[in-house]
Each structure stands twice: as structure tokens, then as C-alpha cells.
Amino acid sequence: MTPTESISLPMPRKTGSRSLEETLSGRRSVRSFSKRPIPIEAIGQLLWAGQGVTAEGGLRTAPSAGALFGLETYVACA
Hints:
Blueprint: H1 20-25, H2 40-51
């Protein structure tokens, strides 16, 4: 893949099996990593959670002053 190529991501899940409170209380930092590839579904879900469009007009999952959304998110793959 070249820097100008893009791929389509699967549609995000908008409901989950755990509440926000359960997720937050179970959160832990991990500093040892697997060599297994991350599934495209997991990458897509993470990107949607951070900057996903949630409504017409481009509203997103993360707030932005004046709805300007000055951030762009990119994934670098090796």
C-alpha cells in the first residue's frame, strides 16, 4: 500500500455487550504486545470511536469547538 492508497473500513458497531461503566472499571494498561496482526474490524472500530461521523452534517464521536473538526486521523501500517 502506498501513502496515497486508502481502504474501506467495515461499518462500526454502535452497541456493545458491556456498559460504559464496566468497560472503564476493567481498563488496564498493557505494555507487552503480541505479534499477531490487528483485525481490520478492530482498527475500524477504534477509529470510529475516536473520530467517527455520527450524524448528517459531519458531527462526530469527539467534540470540536464550533464543529470545525480540525483533526485528521491516519493509520500507519508496517
